[in-house]
Design goal:
8 strands, about 270 residues, alpha+beta, Mannose-Binding Protein A, Chain A, rod-shaped
Length: about 270
Amino acid sequence: MSEEVMYADLKFQDSSKGENIHEFDTVGIKAPPAPSRGWRQRALALTFLCLLLLIGLGVLGIIFYTTLKIEMGKLNKLQNFKEELQRNVSLQLIHNMNSSKMIRDLSITLQEIATKLCHELYKREPEHKCKPCPETWMWHEDNCYILIDNYETWQESVMFCSAQNASLLTIKNKSVLEFIKSKRLRKYWLGLLTRKYQKNYQRLDETIFSSDWLLRNTNDVNDRMHCGYVDSMYVYYTDCTSTMNFMCEKLANPVKIESTLMNEIPDGKYS
């Protein structure tokens, strides 16, 4: 009887231990607490916020792409407009240059026509108002000439011509040579100067190639120098302090087109 009691006690104790062990297995290892309701709401809110951010980024991306495309289109249009404007400006410049050249060529042609016409008028009337030389001056090609029948030294002659914005006569081409020959000058100073020695006379034709034509300052002329003068068809040299007539020359003014082309009267006469 006592043995049965002991067996029952032991079994009871064993069952108690088993329950304790089972309870330890189930309770001793702490399971994670069940998520609270507030945490789930926060998680949902965060997820929703992230979703909104993604949507916002997508919308911004679309807006940026659309705006960029529009602005690039405008930029291309501006670039095309700029290139077109540059082409138009270049074409206009070329047109202006061509027009300027045509106007310049036309002006030159008109000037040549006016000069030739004025030459013809000058032959008929030496003091015609189209003449590009001062009154009493002779006109030959591009120069004006005047004969001064006053006996002066060579240097005084140079000074007189300088006061007229002119210089003593020089002969440097055949056209001027023939013009001077036609005047049959007798003892007229030329713009020839030598130093300290007297050269032999020479034919007027030979002076075209002379290196003695005046190209330097005349202030140092003295009584030991010899100057050239023309006498008929020859050139002679004498003391620069001798006195002779002289001839001045200067560049003619351009012929005035309006004073030439507008002076012809319908009946063929000229004013």
